[in-house]
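Form 7-S
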Amino acid sequence: MGMPYLFTTVFMMDKKDAPLVSVLMTAYNRQDFIAEAIDSVLASTFTDFELIIVDDGSSDDTVRIAREFERKDRRVKVFVNGQNLGDYPNRNQAAAYATGKYLKYVDSDDTIFPDGLRYCVLSMAENPSAEWGIIYPAKIPRQTLMSPAESIPYHFFTFPFLHCGPGGTILKRDFFFRAGGFPVLYGPANDMYFNLQAAAKGNVLLLQDIFYGYRVHPMQEQTNQFSYLYNYSKYLKDALENLELPLTSKQINWLQLKRQRRFAVNISRYFLKTWNIGKTRMAIEKADFSWRDYFTGIFHLAAKPSGGN
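Output:
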């Protein structure tokens, strides 16, 4: 099944004067946070970057604040969308403006640590066969590199390390486009689908150091728990069906049953908590979930298939 992506302009050729890294910052009504986010990027000890800020039709002072930084620092480039695209379509739009070898997302309500950009870039440079890197703050050998045949089973059967937002990754720009960019069908779970897609297509570098500061606040998309309820199930259903994952058919079937069980439990809890029949039915429809899925999932007690660690 084809996935709809949004790219209006794609610069696929490197320029001789292009920076090594394109830092991508998307924004929508972030006047309270964006100055701190921009300051953190400009304070980086690694300086060979461009900071691309793409505003998605803010109605507050976000653009004015960003423009002030653009006037003071030639590395800052501000773009304003003619219409609101939404979170992940706008992330794709920001990538389309990039000219650097690497893409590093820094959200407009987060910060990157002074040595964070340097750490990510040098780690990738030291591991040229890595197509992308993802934060993995646990006890592992430094700069562990995983092939698709290693990372996908590890994620599903050992530790779900691919559940990470764009701010916790660094990607080669050409790989981002070859991987297809972010999907736009799964709301706040678009990044989780993309991470599976990327892990299935290229070697991933595990980055042990924490290199960015993540802010939690009420205006984040992740606070929409109703959207997560069905999108978390839908993205995984489609990923297991459509991506070329290095898993056996038995493993995929077990993971689908596990997903069905999780959604059956979560939707039951949601209904018992809210007694909202309309929204419960809506979530079931959006998750592409049937009563057969419900009963096969709720009684799923099968042992983990061989091959899962």
